[in-house]
Amino acid sequence: MRFARGSDLPLLVELVGRLVAASGIPLAMDPDHTRSVLRRLIISDNAAVWVTARGFLAASIEQTVISPAPVAAEHGWYAEDGKGLRLLRAFEAWAAERGAMVRLSTGIGGPDLSRLGYRSVETAWVK
Question: pLDDT tens, 95-123?
Fold first, then answer.
């Protein structure tokens, strides 16, 4: 596992497509948009993308309307190589270095992260 580089974009775009297919997200993926967003995250000082042979996690530091406190927001997390927990741990360490709370999502029927100290604070709905 390592930070992604520009040369990883073809793999990352493919993995985002697999994430969309596996999760039931009701949006059609636009590969050009996905590539552009990932490219910006890779080069940003306030973002990171980690990659494994068949997985990734993309995130950025944000603020909410509630507080100026930094939040490390996950924008995509998918692994089909058994490295999902390693990606999560790298994300957590990166967020901690920046003094940020971690915010992430899992698909319906995804892993129960309460055993790792997470708690559910809201449910996402789409229409």
Answer: 999 999 999 988 887 888 999 999 998 88
**What's the pTM?**
0.94
CATH number for the domain including 36? 3.40.630.30
Distance of alpha carbon 53 from alpha carbon 79, whole angstroms: 9
The tally of domains found in the chain comes to: 1
CB 70 within 8 A of CB 100: yes
Q: Tell me if 61 sits within 8 A of 72, measured CB to CB.
A: yes
- Domain hosting residue 101, numbered range: 2-116
Domain annotation covers residue 70: yes
The C-alpha atoms of residue 23 and residue 43 are separated, in whole angstroms, by 27
The total of other beta-carbon atoms located within 10 Å of residue 33's CB is 10
| Largest pairwise CA distance in the chain | 37
